[in-house]
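Lecture 7 notes: from sequence to structure.

We start with a single chain of 380 residues. Read the sequence below before looking at the structure.
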Amino acid sequence: MTRLGPTDRAALLVWAASRAGLAWLLVVVAWSTGLALGAPAVGPGQLLQWDAVHYLAVARDGYDQPPDGSRLDAFFPGLPLLLRGLHAVGVPWVWTGPVVSLVAGAVAVTALARLAEADGPPGAGPRAVLLLVLAPSAVFLAAGYTEALFLALALPAWLAARRGAWAAAGLLTAGACSVRVTGLFLLAALAVRYLQQRRGGAGAGPPGRWSWAWLLLGLLPVLGFGAQRWASTGDALAWLHAQQHGWGRTPTWPWDAWARTWHAAFHEPAQPAYALLGFRLELVALVVGVALTGWLVRNRRWPEAVFVGLQVAVLATSSYYLSVPRATLLWWPLWAALAAWTLRSRAGPGGEARLAWLLAAMVPLSVALTVGFATSRWAG
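Now the structure, written as tokens:
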């Protein structure tokens, strides 16, 4: 990341305003549930829900802890190590996750703004950031989850690759791979980007003959995590098997996964209302992912198509759809494309109308999922 320019400052202003708005929303949630201002539930503890609890447990006590140790293997060590490091310098445990997401999110939105602005039109950078922070699952950019941290590593890696700085891209990709398995999809996409540059068709000049070797650094965290779990449990793929045993996520045919999720969304009267909403959003998000992949392929944006398409393929062939809306936060081509769409118009106020309709669709869902998450309801 280089010196901040006007686009960077605009992106950071949007980020700061969104954090202030989220903090105010959490206070309102506490008030509306009958809690007095200043009660223990008002604060970072509202964001310590679901997987954030698991990441914090790994940070405090490691992976091998009863009674739920095998489930913890599903969580890559990058974020827990960072949480542990923050606590070692005096940050209270409950604050470590939100602090990581706050700082990492600032880096991520700056990089997103640069990517979107480079693709145009003018103003697309801050607009992409605005859409990201108002996305339905945007609460996960504030909680102790991996989305903000992953973006803070993946987006600068993408920027580095675009300018031909493959050593930086490889190091950042290694960081992303330590945070979540999605880093492997980033690695594959950057490999495609490298091949494009070798053939002279991707902006920067041809990379050095051995520049691709930097990308191999991305494999080291995954292999190292596997080796550590093998030494401890005898299972080098413990992270994968934890997903299968802990959450029932096994490979299946895409039509079976769709049918199972559809049934849960529309034909399970015993489901609580928030679960019904969640499963319906899973279906919508999967459709968005398929459409985005198709759009990227149509426009011959092969690296981005690989990154998004591999994620969609994995999510669409799981036993049922889980955390697909949350995965959309990582699909930066989506936010950049939507930003450009709201800024390009043949004549008249078309762009403003598109933005208004997008916000009208997203903001109520974003508020609903934030309230649900802060009150211990599953929000994806």
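Residues 36-40 have pLDDT under 50 and may be disordered. Keep this in mind for problem set 3.
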